[in-house]
Amino acid sequence: MTTIRFENVWKEYDERVVLEQVNLSLADHEFLVIIGPSGVGKTTLLRMLLSQEQPSRGRILLDGEPIATEPTADRGVVFQRYSVFPHRTVLGNVMMGPQWAGAPFLGRFFGARRRALEERAMALLTRVGLGEHAHKYPAQLSGGMQQRLALAQALIMRPKVLLLDEPFGALDPGTRKSMHELVGELWEENRMTIVMVTHDLPEAFLLGTRVIAVDRRRNDPQAPERFGATIVSDFEAKCRSVRESRAFEAERERVRLALLAGTSPAEDAPAVPAFETALVKD
Amino acid sequence: MRRIINYAPRPGVRLILALLPFIAVLAIYILASNARLAVEPADKLMPSFASFWTTMVRMATTVDKATSQYLLWWDTWLSLQRLFLGLGISALLGLVLGIIVGFVPYLRATFEPFFAAFSLIPPLAVLPILFILFGLGEASKIVLIVFGIAPFIIRDVMLRVSAIPAEQIIKAQTLGASTWQMIAGVVLPQVMPRLIDSVRLSLGAAWLFVIAAEAITSEGGLGYRIFLVRRYLAMDVILPYVIWITLLAFLMDYALRRLAVAAYPWDQIKAA
């Protein structure tokens, strides 16, 4: 369970107000998309959630606790560019997080631990479609493949929240489409919360379960920096009860078919990896 | 008629073109030398290649009476020792200080202006101070090299550290990395190719300081020999020594370049 709350968050740089009165409450397993015009503070909102920047007023709560004042492993991130390490191979990139967590001084695993991690990383890479590129360097991959790698690298840490800052902004339309599918599926499979910033409206409504628009409510032509942006609209793009009943129907159908076929439903892997099965899933 | 920048030589032509200036310089020397030797067979200013050869063979294969050493090898050994010690200490200082100061904002704010000012001190101007402080022995020569090139390497490494995209550092933190882990796992490996480049660029300066220090006080060394035999106008020693130093510098540069290619393949891919 992961919930996010923004409580009256403001962001000011000296005299300039960027964001004002941001109040938001996000339930578990939502796909929140933040849209809005350029330069209005979408990314600032995401950066505050990442603790790359601190709110000037108000606070941000993750599961009811104020978030750490620096980036930590509970919030994963994929930026538009530069979020993979050019000096490590694809496999090495994915293995970095767990190795840092488990080997404070050397940052490297050896022997059986390493093999176990390699297996996990390879499974994840195969899932995002980079299985056969495991031993290449990021510079040898296309833009879309680099973003897949960045996703895998973040996912292996099993963050509570995954933050995406215009992750498909630099990709061509075809690649973008396949990335949409991948991110949608990963969101379902890992049952996590995703917060994404984009300026692409169709993309926002395709992926998001909840879409918020950030813009200035008031504008003073004499002093445009006087008023900041805030959440001006809040759409429930995919209704939660519909989503859950769909998942439930799918699960019921699976059990029914299994019973018809005369096998015990528990023996099969669940077709819809939702509910408790997904929570214990590695 | 196209613009001149749009004419590019073919690979074979390129090789010939690259050799041309070398051949031209050699030819001019031989012609001038022959002309002078024809007038005065004992001319010391532009000796023939034959006398270069006999002098070098003598210096490389006969034991000198005063020092009981093979002079060429003895000089080379002394100079390279100083050069490598100076370069090694500078590279190490540059790496450690450059990364720590470049990566930690408080240290950066404290030391960056200091390093910037420090790197502007002309090293040769403080050479007398070094002689007073460290004596006339090896220490002052090595300190001079370090003094001359370490500030440059430190600043270069700091620049490289700050050129690492902020996204990577944030990403590393979201993967749970500590400051030490980021230094060892993200910053250091990405700075290493740049450090090698930095050392390559410092080679010329390092040789300058070695020769300058040796010229003033020494018992041996390539620079010392050149300045010693200057009194006798011994161009048959000086010119081959200069070429020998150039060759050594070229070989070091080449070796460092190959090292960078072999040790950091990802950096080559990125550049290409």
UniProtKB/TrEMBL annotation, chain A:
InterPro entries named in the record: AAA+_ATPase (IPR003593), ABC_SmlMolc_Importer (IPR050093), ABC_transporter-like_ATP-bd (IPR003439), ABC_transporter-like_CS (IPR017871), P-loop_NTPase (IPR027417)
Q: Which GO terms describe its molecular function?
A: ATP binding
A matching Pfam family: ABC_tran
Print the keywords alphabetically. ATP-binding, Nucleotide-binding, Transport
Entry-linked SUPFAM superfamilies = P-loop containing nucleoside triphosphate hydrolases (SSF52540)
Tell me the domain of life: Bacteria
- The keyword Membrane is annotated on this UniProt entry: no
Name all ABC transporter domain ranges: 4-241
- Residue ranges annotated as transmembrane are none
Q: Which family does it belong to?
A: Belongs to the ABC transporter superfamily.
This chain belongs to which protein, by name? NitT/TauT family transport system ATP-binding protein
Provide the species name: Ancylobacter vacuolatus
TrEMBL record, chain B:
- Membrane topology field: Multi-pass membrane protein
Among Pfam families, the record links this protein to: BPD_transp_1
Question: Where does the UniProt annotation locate this protein?
Answer: Cell membrane
- PROSITE patterns, alphabetized: ABC_TM1 (PS50928)
Q: Where is the ABC transmembrane type-1 domain?
A: 76-260
Where is this protein chiefly located? Answer: membrane
Protein's UniProt keywords contain Heme: no
Q: Which UniProt keywords apply?
A: Cell membrane, Membrane, Transmembrane, Transmembrane helix, Transport
- Bilayer-crossing residues are 12-32, 83-107, 114-136, 142-161, 199-217, 237-256
Protein family: Belongs to the binding-protein-dependent transport system permease family.
Q: What is this protein called?
A: NitT/TauT family transport system permease protein
